Amino acid sequence: MEKISKTIQQYWFMFEELVNRDFKQRYKRSVLGMAWSILSPLMTLLVMRVIFTQFFSKDIPHYTIYLFSGNIVMSYFRESTRQGMRSLVSNSKIFTKINVPKYLFLLSKNVSALVNFGLTLVVYFAFCVMDHITFTPKMILLVFPVLCLLVMNIGIGGILSAMYVFFEDTSYLYDVLLTLLNYMSAIFYSIDKFPQSMQMMYMLNPVYVYIKYFRLIVIDGIIPSLGYHVLCVFYAVFYLALGMYIYKKFNHDFLYYL
Amino acid sequence: MSVIDCSHVSIRYITGDFKSIGLKEYIVRRLTNNYHVKEFWADKDITFQLEKGDMLGIIGTNGAGKSTLLKAITGIMVPTGGEIKVKGNIAALLELASGFDGDMTVRENTYLRGALLGYTRRFLDEKYDEIIRFAELQDFQDYMFKQLSSGMKSRLAFSIACLVNPDILILDEVLSVGDGAFRKKSGDKMKEIISGGVTAILVSHVMPQVRELCNKILWLDHGKQVIFTDDAELACDAYEEFLAQKKKKPPKTVEEMRTLQRAWHIRQEKETAEKAKKAAEKAAKEAKAAHEKAEADRKALQNN
After folding, report:
1. CB contact residues (below 8 A), chain A span 151-170, against chain B
2. Residue among B166, B61, B167 nearest B119 (CA)
3. Nearest CA-CA distance, residue B166 and chain A, Å
4. What number is the average pLDDT over the span A85-105?
5. ipTM over 0.90
6. pTM for the whole thing?
7. Which of A97, A108, A172 to mutate to test the interface with B (most CBs of B within 10 A)?
C-alpha cells in the first residue's frame, strides 16, 4: 500500500502534464474543438432519430433517450479504446528515450476521453428534461456503469495498444470490429422480440450490458438486480486484468518494435 | 562496490516482419507454420565496472551496439542475458530533440519534458527561468515548439536535461548541440557536472573529445567487446589506427566496388567540368582584357 502511494506521488506530476497535453491536442485550444465534442453526438442522434423513428418508436417509449443512451455509451467506448490503442505508438518517441512507466500514456488518454464523455452526459440530461423523464435519486447509480466502463476501457485500450505496437493493421481490424459491435449493441432497436436464448447472447457484449443499465435507470426507473451489477463488474475487471497481464508480459518487448 | 556493474550483458533484438505483415497475415503464417523470426544480437557478453568519478568513453563504428547498451544501463531496455547493477540516479541525454509536441508552446513543452524526466513541479517552477536563459530562448517562450529552428530545439532539450545533479550522467553524442557559442557553453556545463564527481558515460565519434574527458574506454565492434581498459590513450590510439586501416582496406564485394567507382566517376566528372568552366572563364577574362586594351589604344590614337 505504502509502495503504491509512493508511486502515485512520484508520477502524479508527470501524469498531470500528460493529461494537460492530451487536452490541448484534443481541443487544439479552440472553443469549436470543445463544442465539436457535443455537436458530433448530437448530429448522430438527429440523423438516427429522423430515420429510425419510423420503424421503432412505436414499441419503444422515450425513443430519443433510448437512442441517445446507446449512442453516448457506444461513442465513449469507441473513442476511449481507439485513443488507448494509439497511446503507446504515438508516444514511442518519449519512452524509447526516457525511462517512464508506459501505462501513464494510456491512463492520460482515458482521462481526456472520460471528460469528453462527461460533456456529452450534460447534453444527455438536457434531453432527458425535454423528453419528460422524471429525475429520481436513483440516477446517482449511473456513476456505477460509468466507472465500470472506465475500467474496462483502460483494460481494452491496454490490450489494443500492445497489439498495435506489434501489428500495424490492428487499427483497421478494430474499426471493423467496432462497426459490428455497433450493430450488435441494440443502439436503435430493441431486443425484446428475439427469443430468450438470443437475448442471453446480447449479455455477452459488455457495451450492451452497460447501455442497458443506463436505460433501466433513466427510462424505466428500475435498479438492476445484484447479479446484473456483478456482471458489470466482472467485465470491467476481466478486461482490466487481461490488459494488465499483456502490459506486464510485453513491457520490455515494445521497444524492439518501435 | 562499483557504481555501475555490468556483467556479461547481452541484448537480443528479434527482427521478424510481423509489423509489416500485420495480424491477419501473421495468423495465416503461424497456422501454416511459415512464420520465422530472426535474432540479432545488438550486444554480446559485455562486462565492465565503473567506480565513482570514472568517465567512460564508449567507442566503435556505427552499429556496434553503443546506444543499445546505454538504453540498457538507463533501464529503458532490459538485457536478454547478464545483469546490470546501478547505484544512484541516472540522467541520460539520448537523442534529446525528439518527443516534444510541436503544437504546444516552449513553456508547456519545458514543463512536460521536465515532468517526464522526473522533476517535481516546485523544482521546475524554481528552475524554469534558468532553463530558458541557458537555452537563450527568452523571446520565444510562447512560441509553438514547431516554430523553433532545429538548433533552438536541441538547445532547449539540452538545457532541460542537464539541470539535474545526477549521480550518473549518460551522454550520447550530445556535446555537439547548437552553434559554436552554445557548443562551448554546453561543453562547459558538462565539464562542470563531471568535475562535481559524477560517474559519466560518453558515446562520441569525436576522438579528441574522448581523449580529453575519458579515463576508461570500452570499445565495441558489431556487438562484441573488443576491449575494456583504463589505459585510455592506448585504446584511443588503437581505435584510430583501426579506423585508418579500415579506410585503406580495398573494398571486398562487387557491389561496394561499383558504388565506389560510381562515386569516383562522379567526382572526376565534376572536376573536369570545373576545370573546363575555369578555363572558359579565364579565356573570357583574357578576351575582355584584350578588348579593353585595344579600345584604350584606339582612344589614344584618336586623341593624338
Report:
1. 163, 166-170
2. B166
3. 15
4. 90
5. no
6. 0.82
7. A97
